[in-house]
Structure formats: structure tokens, C-alpha cells
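Task: complex structure prediction.
Instruction: return C-alpha cells for all chains below.
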Amino acid sequence: MDKKTMLVAEHIDKRFGMTHAVNDVSVTIDAGEIRALIGENGSGKSTFCQMLCGIYTIGGGTFTLDGKELHIKNQVEANDEGISIIVQEMGTLSGLTVAENIYLGHEKPFMHYGVKDTRAMNREAQKLLDAYGFGRIKAGSMIDRYNFEDRKLVEIVKATYMKPKILVIDETTTALSQNGRLELYKIMDAVRADGRSVIFISHDLGEVLSHADTVSILRDGEYIDTVSAKDVTEDDLKRLMVGREIGSAYYRTDYGTPVSDEVVLKVSGVTVPGEIEDVSFELHRGEILGFGGLSECGMHEVGKVIFGASWDRAGSVTLANGTAINDIPTAIKNSIAYTSKDRDNESIILNESIRNNVVLPSIDDLANHGLLNGRKLTRFANEHATNMQTKMQNVGQFVSDLSGGNKQKVVLARWLGKGSDILVLDSPTRGIDVKVKQAIYALMADMQKQGKSIIMISEEIPELLGMSDRIFVMKDGRINGEFKRDPALSEEDLIAKMV
Amino acid sequence: MEKAKNRENEQSRLRAFLGGDTFKALLPLIGFVVIIVVLNILTHGKILTPKKLRLLLSQIYYPTIVATGVFFVMTLGSIDFTEGSTLGVASLVVSALSFYSIPLAILGGILCGAAIGAINGFFHVKFKLQSFIVTICTMYLFRGVCAYFTTETAVPASAAIKALDNNGLKIGITVAVLVVAWFLFRFTRIGNDVKAVGSGETAARFSGVHTDRVKFLAFVAAGSLTGLAAFVNVIKVGSITATAGNQLETQILISLVLGGLPITGGAKVRFSNIIVGTLMYAVLNSGLAILGYDPQTQQLIKGVIFLIFVALTIDRKALKVIK
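Output:
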């Protein structure tokens, strides 16, 4: 007997500005199936599900659920069609009771002439909680009384009590302890047994293989393949997730070039609560030092630490001459540059001209006895923005008008202008097209030749392998592995230390 | 057909112009001219007589000095509501000290203002409270202080300070303040720093700007200049009552916004906003008085004009960035 089809997604598409988040994805999910959806960060799996659930508008293509084409405008409509989602972050509203959270958007049965029957609502909610085996959670209590895990359980009740045709679980398990996970697996199995379907997003490949029936892989917004969980291993999945061509022409091609022994920067015993734990390393002159890991591994904080931008830091960051770096102005004065992953907020002032953005870190150098000369500033900005081949009308243009790649060029122009010797580049090619990427890699190689030291923090493994002399892989806030530049080094080697 | 298309074209061009930056930049000047012309017609030319102009000038000295200080605060994208009560308290200090020595009185006024500014800056920076909340609290606090000393009778100043009442001195102080502030804003990194913080505080911090220091100092500057303005005020009025400086804060806020200063601060502020704004406010004020409107109606008209100006000049793109 043919299995009944539950969900058909055809040519689903979504763009965010320059980024093609979901690119023409088509999948079919059967009734009574647990389908895992995996992929790297930014592969489009969450965006795909959030379109299905009415959180984002659909950029293109159609979803057909149980034979009916969907036209959903928001989450409540999605619920009414039989689609629920349990999200990664906190999905309950504080200030409401447990019962109010469960019935949020579906209060109608309890409304009598515009007045809410709180008692009936609490009674029904408590029945649900008891039926799920979460009887210790009281329907009438404020949600704020419960911890993160219990709130997740409330969310699970909220998402499943109306028996959705399709349940989306978006990286929820990372927030749960083992017990909570078991509860969730039970519910997933119950949904399947009932002939309904689950879309299960998780980074934990072991969990994916043991609980899903089939696995679909997305990469860079594109659909790659769907495999049966029985037929594959974790390594197969990893290969499918990241397996792209490495060694394109634009990375460095030299191997075995010796790196100077001269240490320019020393980080010792640095801890930032909740971010990184006891991180120590040395940066050498003329070295490109890569930092890789999953996005929450703490590597982005390492960049902030070196730039003196971390709050509440313990441990020390010192230069070769003994100068301690504890705040941003000191870092800049001592020739440290930083480009943030959060370019629009931390690297650049959007509502300001290119000119003023480029001159800002160098303003004291450009002043003559504290006095500024407007024409000199313009000339300086023009010189460095032009050197970076920034596409602009003139340096008076506001940065908010520029594309991501051009913004990054302005960011780099300001630090080239400053002449910094230590550059911390966090996700330097994030959201940037291939051509500008190539220019940035060339620039990095060039700076290395001039004896400048670069720390490159990146979520893109090929870029780390292609550009770094040394790579640190971080996991859970600690350095979990160190690799030397080597043509034999593979993505899998790094991934093994990340997850 | 062709005609309709043309009209449509014109309309869209007009819309682009009205929403565009050029129009926003020109609006204060356009508004200034419109207000003068309209008031001149309504008052049958009475507003432009030499006598009226002299009166008008005498009204703008101390607001201009105060507005110059607040200009720096508003460029940060912050707001300061304490000018009125600062002026009141500082005027008391100036009056009291004027019996000893005039230089001491000036210094006392400035220090008193600076201290109030420092309190505002401290709470704003250290406790990360929004500036309008902090300054509304301190506004009430110092209004209370001012009222406490003036409940019984008005506090008189010395005869020596009243003898200084001549336009030359007042013009001199005002012009000196404007020139120094303009110089600092235009030719030192101070101007760059306040604009950078106003446009994007986090990015400014990551560019090496001492954001906390800049914010603190801007409030101190606003307080100090209000303290200096208190001296000019005492020269003019001679004795301090409980209402000294009443509603000065709204007057300054309205002036600067009328002058074209975007309420979000940042890169688009111009130093000329101060001068155009205070002049415009003074013209509007005296015009409405000449027209014989009672104070309540005047207030209502000013409120409407203010609302229209804010709605037309606000930079909606910047609003998303302001926290």
C-alpha cells in the first residue's frame, strides 16, 4: 500500500536582501513519518520551517498540506491549518499563566460575551498537563515560576494538544536535559503512531539517526538529498552537510612557509562568564591564526577579548612589549584592529558618511595639535576607500546605502588607514559575494607578507583551511584542538573537534 | 493620457522631494521665511520695526546660550529636560554670590550648572538610564530646590549685577559662547565623537570613542552653559522667583527642532540649527504676542507647529538604530 502524503513543498524560495536563504527547495513528507532536517548554520533549514509556520512570508513556491494548498499569513492561521512549531529559544510569554500560554490565540472556547472564563481554561489546561504526565506544572500559576525546561514542556503541550498534522521541532533538544529529551521523543513517536508527521531539526546527528525515519540535507539554502536513517552513518551525514569543493583558486596556495617565532600578542587564562573558559594562546608575527567552531562555541568572544571589548573578563591580553589590553581605545592605540561579525552594529556606523567612518579610529593621528582639517580628513578617507575599490559616489555617501560587501570594504579601509599591525577579523566574508571575498583573501595574504598578524574567526571551514597558518577549533567555550597548516588537513578533521 | 502621466510624474517627484534629505535640510529656513512673512502680514508689518527687533534680540541671549549646550546632548540622540530648573537654581546661586563679587557669581553659576549636569550624566552613564527619565526626575528635584528658597519672597540680586544690564555685554557673551562651541564642534574631535555616538553608539565604541566619557561631558557642558545663562538672566531680571526658567526646557527643545536638529541626533545635525532655531522661536513667540493671543492659545499654536516639524524632519531610518 502506498503511504499517504502529508506535506508537499514545491520550489520554496526565500531571499533576505543579498542572501539567498532558501533556494528552490522541494520535499515531500509522508504521513506517519519523522523527517529530520539537517545542515550547517545558514543552510536555510530554520528559514524553510518558519515559512511553513507563517513566521516568515513565503518568498516563492507552495506548500500543500494533506492535499490542500496553504496560504498562511501568520502563526495562528498556521495553527488552524494543523501546523505547530516548537522553537529553539524561549517560546512562552512571561507575565501570563501556564494556561494562558497554552491557549494563546485560541481563547475562543473560553470566552463568554467577551469575558474569559479563567476557571474553565485552567481546568482544561490542567487536564492536558496531567495527560502528558506533566502534572507537577500547575495551569493557574504564572509561567515565570517555572524554569527553562518546564517552560519548554509547556510549549510542547501548547504545540501538540490540538493534534497538529505536522509538528516542527526546531533545535529544541539542545535546551532540554536528558529527561526532557525523552519526553519529547515520546511525543514524537506518539505523533507518528497517530499517522501524523514531524519535522525534526537538530545538530545532534546521533539523535537524528536514532529518532528520525528519514533525513533531508540542506546546504547553502539548496536541497541536497534525502536519505533513510537506517542506511547512513553520522559520517555520511557530515559529508553531505559540508561536502563542497575545497581548494578553489582564491585561497593561499603556499604550504610549509615558516612562521616567525616572534610573539606579538599573548592571551592567557581568559574567561568571560557564559562565553569562554580559560583560553590561552600566542599570536606570532606574520601569522594568520584561524579560529573555528560552531557559532555558539565562544570563538566570536575571543575576538572581542583581544580588542578589549568584553565585559567582565578575567585573565590577561598582553602585547610583546608588555602593554595590557583592557579597553578598546588602548587596543586601537596599540595597533589592534577589529572587524565584528555583527558588521552593521559594531563595525560601522550606518547613519554616517563613509568619510567619517573611515577617519574615526585615526582621528587623533590626523589632528594637528588637536585641530582637525576637514579637507585632510576627506583626502584620507578618499585615499583608503578608493584603495579598497569601494563602490561609491563619493566619501560623503552614507554607509547605510552600501551593499554588504562594500560596507566590509569601508570597515577594512578604516583599519588599513590606521595601519594596524594586529587584525582581528571576525567572519570577514560573511554575506559577501565571491568577488569581494577574493579581494579580501588577497588583501589578507598581502598584509601577511608585510609582517602583520591576523586572527581570522570564521564559521566557514574551507576559508579556515585555505587561509590559516594555524587553526584553533573551539567547543563549549574552550579550545578543543589545534591544527597546523597542511594540505592533508580535511574539513572532517575540524568538524570532529567541533561537535 | 499624456497629461495624466505628466501629472503623476510631477506628483511622484514632489513626493520624493518632500521625503528627501534636501527638503528636510531646507525646511528650517523655509519655515523661518514663512513664519516671518505670515506674521508680518498678520501684524501689518509691526513685527519688523526696529523697536520690536531690539526687543526680540533681548529675548534670545540666554536661550541661545542654553541651546548651545543642549545641542551637544541632542546630537548624542539624548535629551535634557533640566535646563529650566538648572537655570532657576543657578540664578539663585548667582544672586547670592553677586553681593560678594561678580566674577565669583559667574563662576558659581557655571559650577552649579555643571554639578547638575554631572548628576544627570552620572545616572545616565553609570546606571544606563535613559536620559529623558533621568532628566525628568532631576527637573522636578531642582524645581523643588528652587521653589524652597523662593516660597516666602523673591530672592534679590545685588545692585552691582543689575548695573551690568546692557546689550553689549549680553551680545558679547552669547557670541563668545557660539564661537567657542562652533570651533570645538567643527575643528576638534569633540564634534566627531558626539555625532558618532548619536549615529551609532556601539559602533562608535568599537571605533575607539570613549562613549561614556563623551556622554557624561555633554551633560556637564549643557549644565555649565545653563549656569552661564543664569548669570545673563539675573542681569536682566534682577530678582529670582519660584518660576525662574519655567518651561525653558521645552522652549529649547522646540527651538532646536525648529532649527532642523533631528530629534535622533547623529550625523545630520548642523551647528546652524542652534541659531536658526532660537531666532525662529523668538519670532514666533513675539509674533503671537503682538497678534494678541493669550498665553494658552500661544502654547497651543506652538505645540501644533512643533508636532508638524518633528513629523516632517524626523529621520525614520535613524529611529530604528536608536535604543
